[in-house]
Specification:
The structure holds 2 protein chains of 2 kinds.
Chain A lengths: L4 E14 L5 E15 L4 E5 L6 H8 L7 E6 L2 E2 L5 H10 E4 L13 H11 L5 H14 L16 H13 L5 E5 L7 H18 L2 E6 L2 H7 L2 E6 L2 E7 H6 L4 H8 L40 H5 L5 E2 L5 E2 L20 H8 L20
Parallel strand pairs in A: 3-8, 3-9, 6-7, 7-8
Antiparallel strand pairs in A: 1-2, 1-4, 4-5, 9-10, 10-12, 11-12
Chain B lengths: L6 E11 L5 E12 L4 E5 L6 H9 L6 E9 L2 E2 L5 H7 L4 E4 L13 H13 L3 H14 L5 H5 L8 H13 L5 E5 L7 H18 L2 E6 L2 H7 L2 E6 L2 E7 H6 L4 H9 L38 H5 L5 E4 L2 E3 L12
Parallel strand pairs in B: 3-8, 3-9, 6-7, 7-8
Antiparallel strand pairs in B: 1-2, 1-4, 4-5, 9-10, 10-12, 11-12
Helix pairs in contact in B: 3-4, 3-6, 4-6
The chains are: A alpha/beta, B alpha/beta.
Chain lengths: ~375, ~325
């Protein structure tokens, strides 16, 4: 299959301090030589802690931030040298959903205006059909078309995120970069939005870049995962493979840190000691060595390269072959009767035309 | 739990009086008690009243809130205490850690001064002794280079370090009760694991009772002995942690547990609680969870279920508990 998106050696450094004469004295290597490729219809997850460069990478791919080095190939064309008109087409093909649904919708625009704007800018449908299209988009994300005249503040966080998804879908994109789309939402609402995103992906063959710090959510939605630490990918693998046998010590720690709802598994986690190093002064050698329980002399000196094995599981760690396989993840171990009770909440929800209407506060 | 409770909340109701005579009943008839040294978790979605409960017992609610009921702390009713005595208790016997490490520290004071302030105010220490004690406290919450950190400002610290500083403030006077309101929600998972580990350790050292508020049952299971589940301003289930996670007896708890993505198996569709929390100024008649409950029938929409005890210490506000009987 021809990949939808290929990224090669992408690099972006930010200068944070300069001398009086403009010579840079401190730079953050936000994204430092990152390469990957995504097939159409895939969900590619970028995982890591705050400050690891995952959001910058997402914005680089969309060219909201200009890269300093490297190539971004979208449908076989390098987007780093597109003319303005071609860039416009690309913008219609690649969209973004932000983390904070309270900040990403203009509070002075009605929902209808918010959804009409991309239709107008990209000339997707003739003006006479725009109203129809807005109603259709709202129905797609499980909101009633009658909410079009309302303002964002009248909606809850989950509903706002649905509006943001509808806005991204308006221009019929192929790729959507989702930057922590469910991190600001409650657990119960989070699953509604995740299920919706998955439905839409199946229906329209969308490709997602899913940026998140939460590996549990990623496991549920992604089929390929890249784990980032301080601007670099440290592990890259198909999701099943990564969760079945995480190799990099950093990935293991991230997985182990997820709290599992099982009091018996309490405290049996890998706790990383020390603080996340400042991206201004990343450690020499392997950038994880200051927090790595397995670090040896070589890790302090030499930077490990991302090396892939036969099944496409790539790891950047000197000691990857010596380390014992990771401990199995603690499960939740629910009783069969509890599983059956939970299944009642897992009913297949086809988007109901009236969903969301009754729940909106009267203004 | 036969020990006399340290804090006993009974019939707590909070209503907010808004513009144009709008009244919102944020919490309704909440009864809770915490024994010394026990960690109680309060879990629920945003807007279910968990933070309001905490703020009500700290008496930190705004003036338009009306609080009724009683909160006995060491036998004294906090709600009728004169302001001066309440101020003496707050920060000393009763302390609180908030969610936002960014906004709950004063950006114009050093970390050290903010911790020392508590010791000077409540223990009457001299600035020098307070400094020594503060550095000890920073070491206790595992802030590296504590002496250097004393003179730094909050913006110099990472989120995890700020949360440690807040915990140090809360522990300064060896409180009897520590209320932690979503203390790890704003943090990365790796840092969250560190903070939870620290809280477990401090808890076994200090013997303080903890009320731990979170929307995440996973986090609650890491630290709590008992759990109260809140929905739309009332407690819908209360149980020892072991029993709650093994056999939850309220459909809401089941839905919350099911919504947590599983690491140990592949599920195609996540369990989701459809709809959203009801508007507190227009609550449904009958069971408040009925509109979102997959098991609800006519009775649930009409009658309001009472909270009943099913097992020792296991209470549920559902007509159909024990739920096991409903699945064949």
């Amino acid at each position: 299959m021809i990949p939808l998106l290929e990224v090669e050696n992408l690099t972006r450094h930010f200068v944070v301090r300069r001398t009086l004469f403009g010579r840079p004295t401190a730079t953050v290597k936000a994204v430092d030589g990152v390469s990957f490729s995504i097939d159409p219809g895939d969900t590619f997850a970028l995982v890591g802690e705050s400050g690891c460069g995952k959001s910058t990478l997402g914005r680089l791919v969309l060219r909201l931030i200009e890269p300093q080095q490297g190539r971004i190939i979208f449908e076989g064309r390098d987007t780093t040298h597109l003319a303005e008109a071609e860039m416009r087409v690309f913008r219609g093909n690649a969209q973004l959903i932000f983390q904070d649904p309270y900040a990403s919708l203009n509070p002075r625009m009605t929902v209808e205006q918010i959804l009409r704007e991309p239709l107008f800018l990209h000339d997707v449908v003739p003006k006479s059909r725009q109203g129809h299209r807005v109603a259709e988009l709202l129905r797609l994300v499980g909101l009633s078309p009658s909410v079009g005249q309302r303002y964002p503040h009248e909606f809850s966080g989950g509903q706002r995120q649905r509006i943001a998804i509808a806005r991204a879908l308006a221009v019929e994109p192929k790729l959507i970069v989702c930057d922590e789309p469910v991190s600001a939402l409650d657990v119960s609402i989070r699953s509604q939005v995740l299920n919706l995103m998955r439905d839409l992906q199946r229906r329209f063959g969308l490709t997602y870049i899913f940026i998140s710090h939460d590996l549990a959510v990623v496991k549920h939605i992604a089929n390929k995962v890249a784990v980032m630490n301080l601007g670099q990918i440290v592990e890259l693998a198909p999701a099943d493979e990564l969760f079945a046998s995480p190799r990099h010590p950093y990935t293991r720690a991230l997985l182990s840190a997820i709290p599992v709802p099982n009091p018996k598994a309490r405290g049996e986690r890998i706790i990383l000691h020390g603080e996340l190093p400042s991206p201004l002064t990343p450690p020499a050698g392997c950038r994880f060595h200051t927090r790595c329980p397995f670090a040896v002399e070589r890790c302090r000196i030499e930077q490990p390269l991302l090396k892939s094995d036969a099944i496409g599981h790539a790891t950047a760690c000197h000691r990857v072959d010596e380390l014992a396989p990771a401990e199995p993840i603690h499960g939740s171990h629910y009783s069969p009767s509890l599983e059956r009770l939970m299944a009642a909440f897992r009913r297949d929800v086809e988007v109901r035309p009236d969903a969301g209407v009754a729940m909106i506060k009267p203004s | 739990m036969n020990q006399a409770p340290l804090i006993e909340i009974s019939g707590l109701r909070v209503s907010f009086f808004g513009d144009r005579g709008r009244v919102t009943h944020a919490i309704d008839e909440v009864d809770l008690s915490v024994a010394p040294g026990v960690a109680l978790g309060i879990v629920g979605e945003s807007g279910c009243g968990k933070s309001v409960t905490a703020l009500a017992l700290m008496r930190l609610l705004p003036a338009n809130a009306e609080v009724r009921g009683s909160v006995l702390f060491n036998g004294r009713d906090l709600l009728s205490l004169p302001d001066e005595q309440m101020r003496d208790l707050r920060g000393d016997r009763l302390t609180m850690v908030f969610q936002e490490p960014m906004t709950s520290l004063n950006p114009s004071l050093t970390i050290g001064d903010q911790i020392a302030e508590v010791l000077i105010r409540h223990r009457g220490l001299s600035p020098q002794t307070a400094r020594t004690k503060t550095i000890e406290l920073l070491q206790r919450v595992k802030v590296p280079a504590a002496e250097k950190r004393f003179d730094e400002y909050p913006h110099n610290l990472s989120g995890g370090m700020r949360q440690r500083a807040l915990i140090a403030i809360a522990l300064a006077c060896d409180p009897q009760l520590l209320i932690a309101d979503e203390p790890t929600t704003a943090l990365d998972v790796t840092v969250q694991a560190q903070i939870l580990d620290l809280m477990r350790e401090l808890r076994s050292q200090s013997g303080a009772a903890i009320i731990f508020i979170s929307h995440d049952l996973g986090v609650i299971s890491e630290i709590c002995d008992e759990v109260a589940v809140m929905y739309a301003g009332e407690i819908v289930e209360r149980a020892p942690a072991g029993a709650l996670f093994e056999q939850p007896e309220h459909p809401y708890t089941v839905g919350l547990l099911g919504s947590i993505p599983r690491l140990d198996q592949q599920t195609d569709d996540l369990a989701a609680i459809e709809g959203m929390v009801p508007d507190m100024s227009a609550l449904p008649g009958g069971c408040r969870f009925a509109p979102r409950c997959p098991f609800a029938d006519e009775r649930c929409h009409k009658e309001r279920p009472p909270i009943v005890q099913l097992d020792a210490g296991h209470w549920s506000r559902c007509f159909y508990a024990p739920l096991k009987m409903n699945v064949s």
